[in-house]
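Quick entry between incubations.
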Amino acid sequence: MANSDVTVPRAAVGNGDQILHVEHATHRFGDVVALDDVSITARRGEFLTLLGESGSGKTTLLRIVAGLERPTRIARIAIDGEDVSAIPASRRNCTTVFQHYALFPHMSVGQNVEYGLRVRGIDRDQRRKRAEDALALVRLLDKYGRRVHQLSGGERQRVALARALVTQPAILLLDEPLGALDEKLRVDMQVELLDLHEKLGLTFIYVTHSQEEALTMSDRIILMRRGRIVQEGPPTDLFDRPASRFVADFMGVENLLEGTIESVQNGTASVRIGGHVISGAWSGTGLAERGAPACVAVRAERIRLAPRGATVDEPGVNALPCTSGATIYKGKYLDQTLDTDIGPVKARIWDRGVDVTDLEALWWRESECAITSAENGAGAGSGEEADAA
Amino acid sequence: MAATLTANDDVMRRLLPRLPAGVWSLSGFTVVWFGGIVIPLLAIILVSFFQGRGIRINLDPTFLQYERFFSYGGSDLLARSVRIAATITFIELMIAFPFALWLAKGCKNNMVRLLTFTALTVPFFLSPAARVIVWRSVFGINGVVNQALLATGAVDEPVTWLIFSEFAVHFGFLGAFFPTMVWPIFLSISLIDNDFLEASNDLGANRFRTLVHVIFPLALPGVVAGIVFTFIPMLGDTVVAQHMGGNNVLMLSAQVQSLIGVSNFLVAAALAAVVLGIMLAFQVLLWAALKPVGGLNEVFANLRR
Amino acid sequence: MTMTAHASETITYAQVRPPFWRRFMDGLPRGTGLFFGYGVLFILYLPIVWLMILSISGEPLTGIPGEWTLTWYEDVIYADIAQRDGEAYGSNFRVGDPLLLSIGLAFATSAACVIGALIVGPVLPRVKRRGPLLIGFLMPLMVPGIVAGVGLFMWYRLVINVKMGVWSLALAHFVWAFPFALLAMLVVASRFDTRLMEAAEDLGASRWQRFWQIEVPILKPGIFAAGFFGFLLSFNELPFSIFMRAGQDTLPLYLWIQSGAHNTTVPLIYAMSTLVTIVSIGLTFLAIKLAFGGGKDGKQ
Amino acid sequence: MRTSKHLYFHLSRRNFIKCAAAGTAIVGAPAILKGLTRKAIAQDENTIRLLITGPTLIPGDWSAFERETGFKMEDTVIKDDPGIFLTEILVNDGGDRFDIIAALTGAEQDLIDGEAIKPIETSAVPNWGGIPESITQMPYLQRDLAPEGGYVWGVPLAMNADSFGYLPEKLNEPRPPEEASWSLVYESEKTLGRSSTGDNYIYLWEALAYLKNTGQLEVGDLLDPSPEEAAATADFLIERKQAGQFRNFWKIFDDQVSDMKNGEVDAIRCWEPAVREANKAGGDWVYANATEFYTKWMHACYIPTQVHDRGNLEQVHTALNWILSGSYAAGITPLRGYVTGRPDLAPQYAEENGMGPEVGVAIDEALAKVKFKFAKEDFWFSAVPSNLQEMQAQMDRVLNA
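Done. Structure below.
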């Protein structure tokens, strides 16, 4: 409604490499702010994942891109250089694969796939041909005449995929497409999706709440929380360099040790936790400041054990004296809890030969942990980052 | 293209709120319906608190109409009407549910289905009076039943309670209101996915459990609709009570007709207000009965697979 | 998901001796429901068949068939024809015009019910505070028909001051039939998944395409039911019509007025009902064959 | 779920007001259309449009009227419940659509009060002069409106003196012209469980007349009973109902006939044509010459106020004169047993038109009826007594007991 009072940053327009711009999108459902001034971009051919827990606004953002939701405020949304903020979903050059398939129950598989072409007035023969191509792509060519309720869950998902692809959209939006599938199917479908992405060179925007899925598939991940972006970057960034305690936690870092920053040097920060000082690379947003609360994030598989009597005193190593706690057998490995004087630490032990009953200390290399800000909230100024990109 | 469209959209948006067409038409329809129908109907209740004669009404508030209504035996009338209608509705439900279930899922012969549907529909086209009057000659003192009973020596005197009695009224309602119960239940059961029923059977649930735990909850909107379709028109029926009951078993609508026949609109309004109260109570009861599945609204709103 | 729950319950069920009524229900032979269902249909049709027989009897009011005659049919059919030709005929039982008006009104009501139910049905389940709305739409069900008719009459004639006519009769029929049509639609629409509409929009379908290609086909059973109930309820509507008619006679109104005459109309009503039955059996069968006979969805 | 919930309903107050404004316009449209529908209906002044109730209509046959007057007749039949009838005239402006209104007498006071009808100039209706005194003196035809007084408001259409039907052989009762007592309907042990009466205030009123005549109740004005008298009568009927006197309470003509034909009753308060109908199949029913009283009723014709502006008053007067002619009498009397305002004109008409001996007999009976039954004092029934609603309410109490 009130587009005009937000200035459109001209610098971002006309960047040929960018296929999607969403600038300053805000959306409210009544009093609830679902999306709080978020801006994102996507490169042509990119596999971009919107990651977050439920209620983080990732689906809302996707729906705004699709045109299914009209944002409360938005500066601009451009697909392939064209401003589409006033264009309804039916005329946007992107299609969605829905979490619950949303296949039309009164149509056959073929009719479902053809639907997008039918509404575009494409003639019957060509429709059929293109639908068959799309079905072949998802290896369901033989199911053309079937009715939807005769298909299995995985097949339905692939039909939904074919239906979305057949109109050759500029962007394919996938809203937790694998959420309704069981574990094994999900892994198969991940592979299939990646194949498709590679084959078609399309831009995929993929919504998921599973960090594992995001890490496996994405070129880039945007992690969202409470309607804001907390961190974005390639999977390795989010995995190894969490920008906040929240990111680290969300990305599955098992050990988060909180303390205060004692010193900062060349991007390396030292944190005092109880009687110990732990050092590692600073990965938080902004600059680390002495005395600020910070958090050491270290993954369980990085934790190594020193048997009783061994000395752990090399440079570049963080060590904590410990005793053994509960052990959980996980088949391929053991999840071992270790009690230290700053609280329990989890270690993942792959080597069956290690004796965990009698320990001197646990240790890890400074390069194997990240020091990040202890705050749980969203990272500051997600908008700035988007502008900078 | 996009530019002109945007311009148009802006004009439209300034004039009209940004709502989907569905909400627009619903809002419009709702306003028309409430302004044109609900308010006049509610005005009836208001009128019942006034005095007057015929359509000349003066605006002195009073409970006189209610006093009059109840002094004419109104409470007996209401109790009798509701009792009879509720009894028959219950019996119809018991008979119609398995029948509708069979029609929707059990019957494999398409011709039998089509003929049964037709049979369930045709009575709607007939004047109810014509159907009911016939029973008088069947159940009357000289009627077929009595003649048969006398001939076989089962009775010495003709049985008089076959007609102009409560039995007769019940019997008259039974046939007449069967289709109204079957149709909605059939509709809702036929929407249940067969996979669902088969799955339930595969898992070893016996028939009864499938019925209670799978079919019944899914058919609930139809059951509720069926009860409404049956109970309410039955309360409003003028024909059966008159012809089968011979005015010995007075029911609500006959009373209303006689009130209107002598321009007694005010007592009729009071009666309408009381009936409205009963209907709301009925709805509350229904709601309470459906509370385990989320109440009446939810039955229609949230039943999704 | 629900099925797993059932499976586990079944195990406990097998272990506990079920109460009497469950054993009774399970023990009933499969045809019990059918038997009672067709039994009631028999009760429904016995008088209809009987009146058909009586309609060709000389003395139908005694209830004993005999003295076969077609005189009642002549009275029903010829009175109309004679009047049209400007001739005298010894019966004023002229059902032609009332019948035509009834059929016309029934079609109009049916169409209005379908449109109304399509407007309200799919959206209502998704409205937040739908309780008062639903009660408002079902309001005509809760007031005795003739009182509601008087109420509407007073409102439009005395408050708004418009004259009654065919429009008010049509309105009365719509008011009576719409709640039923809406309920029938809600039975279907409450299961309608609006995400399908989003999917269609997303695929590029315009408003009308979404409506005609997605919503209407999926809601087809509800649309059919709404139209069906609209037609049938209108065709036999009497109480609302009494005050909303203003000089117009529908078939039920006409028969009702005739019943006030001091001559017998029953044989004529029998003859007419027989004609209506025969015609409606044919037409209903065709209509139902069209609606359900297609087979795909209904049969399996 | 999360997604679809918000899709449809996002109605802010402002939006709602906009919607409401649009809706109100649609609701108001009928009021605007009013002006269009108000226009007078074009009419042919030689067509007489008659609003009539069922009983007095000669089925389908206006040919005699059309032949003898040269006008065309269009009849519209209406139910004779006063509530429905009065609404049609007073609220639905029946006068716009009808030239003559025929209704049960007694309802005219409301029509007069509502200025829906105008007095009749009897001088313009030649046949008026010969109406028997016993009929013209009927209280409802001429109402005194102070200060003018003595207007004639209605022209008699058809009337009868109602009693009851019974089976003389079976009950061991005499046949007419011997008299039979109304107790066969209300109190006789012989008819316990086998008698029947009607279901509305008329029949309560009759029971009241019966109580008065048998000295069981002190009644002030039988022509206009008080609520207390009605209540006392209801008590009597309830007592009889609970004693099992009545088989049923009929509503319509066909109920009476089937009660008689199906052997449900031995005595029944009914209309005269019902006895004829029951006897068609060989019944032994007779219509009583009652000991106590007759319920005398009349349907009369009224001229709506609007007719005076339409310029066909002359034709209307001619039509009214025809109703008082031998033609209508010779038609309705043999058919129903009803009497018109001028039964005396019927024999000559029947003879001139060669209508056969049965018609002659029926007309003779009718003339005798006027002499005998209409001369009896008792009561003329009014469609709208002052305490109409109370009387019906008391009857409802009887039915509810």
